[in-house]
Amino acid sequence: MDLDVFVTAHRTEWDRLERLLRRGRRLTGAEADELVVLYQRTATHLSLIRASSPDPLLTGRLTQLVARARSTVTGARKASWRDAARFLTAGFPAAVHRSRHWWIPTAVLSIALAALLGWWIGTHPEVQAAIAAPDDLRAMTEPGGEYETYYSSHPAASFAAQVWTNNARAAALCLILGAFLCIPVIWILFLNMLNLGVGIGLMSSAGRLDVFLGLVLPHGLLELTAVFVAAGTGLRLGWTVIDPGPLPRRDALAQQGRAALGMAIGLALVLFVAGLIEGFVTPSGLPTWARIAIGIVAELAFLAYVYVLGGRAARRGDTGDLAAVERSAEVPTAA
Length: 335
Description:
It contains 13 helices and no strands. By secondary structure, the protein is an all-alpha fold. Helix 5 runs parallel beside helix 10 and helix 5 crosses helix 11. The radius of gyration is 27 Å and the shape is elongated.
């Protein structure tokens, strides 16, 4: 395509579109119809230029024109409580449900790794000696030691807020860094499982594994599930870089990235609940069975939320992505 000839042939239409956009709401009915037609033509022109003769300056101008025209044609849209309700009852659970083939294997392998590390540390005194000195190990594992007092060492409210912030940051990192070919996500997940495995190993070697599990399970079930969902989603995002499927890599990443952003918000809410349990239930004077029961109820409620509401929304075609009207315009791409 001869770019100079193409520009000469269509410059008048682009200039006319720009003049109509400057008029804003003062358009007549005929001018509004003309703006729609020029918007569609300019979007097609932009597609042809991108595919055949990419020119940075011209592409930039037409991209801006198309974006402004689309905003004028579709109108500005404000978020509402209905959007929030739709996100919580359909978008977020559907996204978690659709990614279950990633986060469930991630959870199974991670728990197996933590159990293996715990067994290795608990049955090998030389490994324990490499972790800390004997006196320090006793200070951590003895009754009233650091593992027990950790959950009651700060006021419940501030501790819950701190836990929520740390866990939300870890989940967000898994979602964001997944695009880097999955490697950072695997590393973050390994560090979390290593920390859990060390606790299992040291407390089991001291004959107090039941105490450790009684402290971890109330909040840990929901908290770890949220981390596994975040890690599985991050791995899925990283795999999209490697294998985008039928879509162009940029479009596939945009689609997965938007869904991941929504999941980050939803998982922050899930981790907030886990933080409340860790701050107020775990260090409470409730019997161990009651604390664990609260954790199991919270975990089952989340799984029911994902599989009932999320499964229903996923079958309706909800992916957790933005609605079509909220996404950037997608112009046809020349073959």
